[in-house]
Amino acid sequence: MSTLALVRHGQASFFSDNYDQLSPLGEQQARLLGEYWVRRGVHVDEVFTGPRVRQIETAALAGEAFARAGLPWPEPQFLPELDEHQVDRLIKVAMPQIAAEYPEVGRLHADYHAADGPRDKHRTFQLMFEEVVKLWVDAKVSAPEIETWSEFRERVRSGLKKIVAGQGRGRRVAAFSSVGAITVCLQAALDCGDLKALDLGWRVRNCTVTDFVFSGGRLTLEGFNAYPHLEDPAMWTYR
């Protein structure tokens, strides 16, 4: 049996002009993961990362702990299939139409823009975001040149097949991605419906590890949303 450690990227820069970069806290989360793996004697045979900066940076910072300890860390292989979905872009380009058809989402969107302070901004954005994701998964909202849920799911599953198809037994693979791709992998392992998979995905914190074992095309969930490397509750973030 081989194992896949699927890591969500560290905290990104939600309120900055460029979301797709780790915040200082996100950088620390990634370093702590690498240091924890080194202390535990984890050996990694292959590393995959999606194309987003936040995914690449998380892998690189985790790998630095191995380099400092004089241990091997494989050169990351970039896998476009591990990219996140584009619901954030869908919100930007299609919110007027979405709000007109689904007034409750429009109210949530207005609440987000009226929110005062980071905590309230995070809370109101997440409420609005979850509702739009559900509509997107149900194929009730869409926009040109933005992947549908079905297209996204098939793309991620294609990348997952590439990872598990590698040669050799007893491989230890680490892959760095985002919560959408992790949700699809959970669904593939558990054979559950879309909404159940989404419910699980919302619980995945930044820089947590979801473990799978695989052999002969079979994928089994081994551990979910683990963060023993993040002992300080101040390190527990979702965005």
How would you describe the overall organization of this protein?
- Helix 4 runs antiparallel to helix 5 (118-137), helix 6 (149-164) packs across helix 7 and helix 7 (179-190) packs across helix 8 (194-201).
- The mean pLDDT is 94.
- This protein has two domains: 2-83 and 147-227, Phosphoglycerate mutase-like (Rossmann fold, 3-Layer(aba) Sandwich), CATH 3.40.50; 87-137, no CATH class.
- Strand 2, helix 2 (53-68) and strand 3 form a beta-alpha-beta unit.
- The chain has a six-stranded mixed β-sheet.
- The protein has helices at 24-39, 53-68, 87-101, 103-114, 118-137, 149-164, 179-190, 194-201; strands at residues 2-8, 46-49, 77-78, 172-177, 209-215, 218-226.
- With 239 residues, the protein is of the alpha/beta class.
Computed structural class: alpha/beta
What is the CATH-assigned architecture of the largest domain? 3-Layer(aba) Sandwich
> What fraction, in percent, of the residue positions are helical?
40-55%
**Shape estimate:** globular
CATH superfamily of the largest domain: Phosphoglycerate mutase-like
The overall pLDDT, averaged over residues, is 94
CATH fold field value of the largest domain: Rossmann fold
Beta-strand fraction estimate: 5-15%
Number of strands: 6
Number of domains: 2
> Which radius of gyration do the C-alpha atoms yield?
18 Å
Topology as H/E string?
EHEHEHHHHEHHEE
User: How far apart are the first and last residues' alpha carbons, in Å?
Assistant: 33 Å
- Using the coordinates above, name the CATH class of the largest domain: Alpha Beta
Give the neighbour order of strands across the main sheet. Answer: 3-2-4-1-5-6
